[in-house]
Please model this.
Amino acid sequence: MALFENINLEKGMYQAKGKSLTDVLESLDPSANYIGTQLENLDAFSRQLKRFDIKVSGEGSDCVEKFFQSSNSSALFPEYVARAVKQGMENADILSDIVATVTTIDGMDYRSITSDPSEDDKSLSIVNEGAYIPQTVVKTSENLVKLHKRGRMLVSSYEALRFQRLDLFTVTLNQIGAYIARAQLKDAVDTILNGDGNSNACKAIASAETGDVSYDDLISLWANLSPYQLNTILAPTSAMKKILAMGEMKDAAAGLNFQGSGKMVTPLGANLLHTDAINSDLIIGLDKNCALEMVKAGDVVTDYDKLIDRQLERATVSCIAGFAKIFKDASIKLTY
Model:
């Protein structure tokens, strides 16, 4: 009998601090042991699904009740829910395109670090022999990062779901993940614009012509962000229409890329991202490599007790995260 078939699954596995069920299973049944076998493309959780012959996607996917054929297999259900929600978050996520780093913490209190270099600090002038070397001050932020709990409650009975196919249920869970991702993006945009409570609100410039956005405005955005790189632009629907209508966006290369892949690139080479989390009269330009830090208090969390015991009514799925600005001047907003 294979090692993964001997593991006793129980609720206590969800109580490992800072670890998901998959992490716990990997420690008991390392994937490295399966290199060169038919199971080498599966992680520890997927091997448990195979153990109990549970197919969660594709043609012929099983019903929800397949998870509850035994006490061992029912312990897999909360992890399935969490992974499906996380998949939905990733599918709807553009945070990875604007966040420089992700910090995972065990508690609820976190104080980030910050640096606010002067123009002289940024220039790195020549240092003569024996002369004083300019310093860059890195310190902890005065205020804690505000963490927000985002989630959804499953309001359904086991009886209502037991005969539903898992691939259909996965779609519903994916959508919950998408809701969480959009809420977190809104939190991230708010931090960029208004700061994280440490007097680091976004610097603003105005469009040359009120109510309109021109190519010259994008050049101004690029110039005012220096010495940081303008590699990401966040824009709402109204601004996206104006940018895509620019003559500079209608050249053959830009048009071919947009029509072929749906990816939009500005004439300045920045990644152009569409979001409704910004007011219609704003555009945000930033250097994604040093503007924003995402702080997470763990990963996707489920009411594993209720889910294992088939008490789906009022079982919650949530994620706790917040954002902190790293370099104050690494983002800028354009009003028009």
User: Anything to note?
Assistant: DSSP finds eleven helices and twelve strands in the chain.
